Amino acid sequence: MSLKLRFKPVSFSWVALHPQPRGVIQVIGGAFFGTFGPMFFYRYLLESLFNRGYTIILLPFNFTFDHYTEAGFLIKEQYRIIPELVRMAKLEGYNYDIYQDNSNFAWIGHSIGCKYIALLEAFSSFPDDPDAIKQIIREVVQETSGSLSPEKQEQKVQSVFNDIEYLIHELRLKNIKTQNLISYYVNPEDSISQTRTDNSDVSVGSLFIKSQPSLLLAPVNTRLDSAIKPKALADFLIRLGVNIKPTPEETFALIQKSRLFNLLGLIYFKSDNIGKSTREWFLDVFKKPPQDFRAELKGGHLRPLGFRLGNFVINFPDSFAILPIQSVKNRNADFEVYVTQLLNYLEQKRREKQKSN
């Protein structure tokens, strides 16, 4: 069966519904390419994933300094989209069972888009007790904001805690609403009078993305001076109190404290200087992912970009190691085959963890 990748707008995102899905992949690209025309810039990668049996959710990248807010937007978007996948699939006569369990959803990020996924993974480890969450945030702030006075540190702790506590409250409500909607779309006659789903086929477990595999492509955890040029302007904004939230140091501390990231894959590129410090932190400091779940490939930071023209793929060259035009066969052998392999490894590991729990 010849399949055509076609995206439809759903909520704030774009969805390509597969008729026989093996899973769902949520994709968020980097700055600019993930904002303006991601379905064009990442076209060949998206086609490859779709042709391998995945329903694709292409999430918008919104440029903001508040990465806490953006990560929260992404997880709320997942809750908005899941019932729509069930409704759309049922309407088309497609298989929709896989959408009723959010552990069948995976993430692929590129560049700074990976940071949002990492934050959601870190949030997945938060305990239920608000005081315990606040203590984790306090430890992160104390470890990374030594130049601030104790009073300023506590103000920062309270601000971050308020945002996360409100997000958790929103997600709890969305979790219930999502399960009710799924149950209604599957069995409208049985669910019309229900106020809370009791459909055993519906499983929206963790509020965040625990049990959902993540594949990071050339991840970047940048400072403000990497997002704004010249550096003098970035320094001036920081002095005025404008900065990325959380800072790179805070992000790394949150990741370490989570003790998760056990369903993590990493692809990085030999000529990528933009993501060099971030990948070195993952490999040398965090010591994850293990060797079998990562790949070092030829190319630079923009290697995941490209679109197909006949039997060839037009790459966005940022490295002399990669030709701007490759045959489909060579492009697959150089990149997409590793994406598929790592996704398969992560899915196998996810199933093994589910059986052991």
What's the short version?
This protein is of the alpha/beta class and 357 residues long.
Round the mean pLDDT to the nearest integer and report it: 90
Overall geometry: globular
Going by helix content, strand content and strand pairing, the class is alpha/beta
DSSP strand content: 5-15%
Parts with pLDDT < 50 across at least 5 consecutive residues: none
Number of helices: 12
- Major sheet attributes: 8 strands, mixed
Measured as a percent range, the helix fraction is 40-55%
Describe this structure in words.
With 357 residues, this protein is α/β, with parallel strands linked by helices. The protein has 12 helices and 11 strands. The protein has helices spanning 38-41, 43-51, 67-92, 113-123, 130-144, 150-186, 188-191, 224-227, 231-239, 248-258, 276-286, 328-356; strands at residues 8-10, 13-16, 23-28, 54-58, 105-110, 214-217, 264-269, 294-297, 306-309, 312-315, 325-327. The strands form 2 sheets. The chain has an 8-stranded mixed beta sheet with strand order 1-2-4-3-5-6-7-8, with helices on both faces. It has a 3-stranded antiparallel beta sheet with strand order 9-10-11. Helix 3 (67-92) packs across helix 4, helix 4 crosses helix 10 and helix 5 (130-144) packs across helix 10. The longest helix is centred in the middle third of the chain and has 37 residues, at 150-186. It is globular and about 60 Å long.
